[in-house]
Amino acid sequence: MAKTSMRYKGSNDYIASDELMNSVNIAMALQKPLLIKGEPGTGKTMLAQSIADSLGMDLLIWNIKSTTKAQEGLYVYDTVQRLYDSQFGDHDVANINQYIKLGKLGEAFTAEKQVVLLIDEIDKADLEFPNDLLWELDQMTFYIPETKETVTAKQRPIVIITSNAEKELPDAFLRRCIFHYIAFPDADAMEKILRVHHPNLEKKLMEQAMETFYTLRNVPHIQKKPSTSELIDWLQALVVGGISPNRIKQEIPFLGVLLKKNEDLDTLLNSLHGKTQAKPQTVYTSTSLNRYRY
User: Fold this and answer.
1) Residue ranges making up the domain that contains 277
2) Pure H helices in the chain
3) Is residue 48 located within the same domain as residue 168?
4) For 84-99, what is the mean pLDDT?
5) Are residues 62 and 105 in contact, defined by beta-carbon separation less than 8 angstroms?
6) Which end of the chain has a smaller Cβ tally under 10 Å, C or N?
7) Following DSSP, what letter does each residue of 241-286 receive, concatenated?
């Protein structure tokens, strides 16, 4: 399988740093999976779509759950349907191929053209899941004993793996990956991201919204800090609600778009209540926040 000569240069709707683009291109050149870690909302999942769009490839997404097994990504043998057909149907049940359904990894292997394969949130699965994929991701092949068939990738897919670091991944798996951590965007990078989604947004509204957003993220003991995607949604809510920049200074309208846990809302209220005691002129109050929670 020939190495791809294409290079990822970002896409119109995804702001990628030079370091991230280099990591993608190194992974493609070395034909290794790219493991992406970072806070929720930093664009890990959207990176795969951006790569597919940039390189003109199809995107296959394998969403990992706590119950997902590695075998499901290769193929599934539908024994129940075969048993049903043998009893009630008119199918030729001797043809086992019709009961073999390829998983996302199997689909990527059999695709005529090179595709981007996203294995999303691999850390949700059990500890053995990554190790169970070592051979297939290394050799780009797997065996189906039911049909005595070996499936070998026609074109090596570009494999992007995301993790929220809910659990550590095995060392043997990590050795086979190129690793990149997407840091949370600073103010300058965030403004570029927001301009992609809200190109016509009033500058003062964006600046005040960002100031409030980063202030919330820095409140101590917040369990689920608001992410980039929530800031994008919040800006949309502010526009739809006709909220002025000055009002954001006085209140935090639609706070429920940013904070999603009651504990975090209470933490923020306690924090701001302390500020109002220290500074009587502070305009954030429990009453105003309760009014605009949702």
Assistant:
1) 187-291
2) 18-30, 44-55, 70-74, 79-88, 104-110, 128-132, 134-139, 171-174, 187-197, 203-217, 228-240, 245-250, 262-278, 286-291
3) yes
4) 79
5) yes
6) C
7) TT--HHHHHH--TTGGGT---HHHHHHHHHHHHHHHHH-TT----H
Yes or no: say if 136 and 74 are a contact pair by the CB < 8 Å rule.
yes
Q: Which amino acid is at 284?
A: Y
Domain with residue 160: its CATH number is: 3.40.50.300
Angle between helices 203-217 and 187-197 (to 10 degrees): 130
Nearest Cα neighbor of 187 from 163, 165, 215 is: 215
Residues 117 and 256 reside in one and the same domain: no
- CA dihedral 116→40→288→199, nearest 10 degrees, is -30
Name the pLDDT band for 110 (thresholds 50, 70, 90).
very high
Q: Is 13 domain-assigned?
A: no
Confidence category of residue 257, pLDDT binned at 50, 70, 90: very high
**Backbone φ and ψ of 153, nearest 5°:** -60, 130
One domain, residues 133 and 196:
no
Q: What percent of the chain has pLDDT over 90?
A: 72
Q: pLDDT tens digit string along 152-169? A: 999 999 999 999 877 889
Q: Do residues 235 and 156 share a domain?
A: no
State the Cα–Cα distance between residues 115 and 136, nearest whole angstrom. 16
Boundary of a domain, candidates 118, 151, 182: 182
Residue recorded with tokens 């605009």: 292
Nearest in space to 180 (alpha carbons), one of 21, 13, 6? 21
Q: How many domains does the chain have?
A: 2
Among 182, 212, 241, the domain boundary falls at 182
Q: Which two tokens stand for residue 115?
A: 């595709």
Q: What is the pLDDT of residue 277?
A: 43
259-269 exposure pattern, b = at least 16 Cβ within 10 A, e = fewer: beeeebbebbb
